[in-house]
Amino acid sequence: MTPHAASAQASARKRVALLGGSFDPITDAHLKCAAEIIHCGAAEEVWLVPCGERPDKPTLRRSVLDRLLMCHLAVNTTFGSSFPVMVSDIELHEPKALPTWHLMQKIKAARPELEPVFVIGSDLVRDLKSWDEGERLWAEESFVVINRPGYELGNEALPPHATRLEPPGNAFTLVSAELSSSEVRKRLRLTSNFGDLERTAINQKNYGLVEGLVPAAVLAHIMRYRIYENDT
Questions:
Q1: Torsion angle of C-alpha atoms 191, 31, 50, 138, degrees rounded to 10
Q2: Is 62 exposed, middle or buried (0-12, 13-18, 19+ CB in 10 A)?
Q3: How does DSSP classify residue 99?
Q4: 99 — phi, psi (to 5°)?
Q5: Where, if anywhere, are coiled coils annotated (predicted)?
């Protein structure tokens, strides 16, 4: 295949941004990021990809199924049915989380009509080559780079197939949010030394601390099933 033919074939594929993460839980910041990728034209679709089990990450105690369900609740109650943000269960049946390189190869093999691009924060770019198959990731794969405060990078510091998340022609200002799932868990965390009545009162107060920071349907799900109640 000639370079021109390969380029034409690539341009004919649907560009899908893979927004991976633990989503433990998913927050409004994740949804804003997904929406802005679409609004900026960086991809035609965004897939939220909850990672598989992470034995190396002891704080990740929720199963991939629990986190997948919270992502579905978030997307289905935030976006209209035609808005191209969806949830992928590609890691649901994996014994552990797929490294980024292997995730992208799996998607390419299963869906050759797609052009997957990986969403990465500028704070992680410098370490990208140290990831599993990092040299190949850097040289061969495509990325959407999200700017993180304090981690501004020049074009020379980006992978060769990277696109910055920027509004076309500076037509509008990006809506940014830096809220992390770990901050939400911190606010939800209960102190195990309290008795049952005290625990219930504190629990209700802590739920209020994350209202407006996670989608309402996700918060209702967390409260109903007490998903984070026993975190320490």
A1: -120
A2: buried
A3: P
A4: -60, 155
A5: none
Q: Is the pTM of the predicted complex or chain greater than 0.85?
A: yes
CA 47 and chain centroid, separation: 8
Distance CA 162, CA 138 (A): 9
Q: Could you tell me the two tokens for 47? A: 């897939």
| pLDDT tens profile 134-170 | 999 999 999 999 999 899 999 999 999 999 999 877 7
Q: What Å distances lie between residue 140 and 104, 169, 197, CA to CA?
A: 11, 27, 56
Cα separation, 218 vs 177, in Å, equals: 18
- Residue 117 dihedral angles phi and psi, to the nearest 5°: -130, 140
14-178 folds as Rossmann fold (3.40.50)
State the sign of the Cα–Cα–Cα–Cα dihedral 108, 76, 176, 148. Answer: negative
DSSP class of residue 175 equals: P
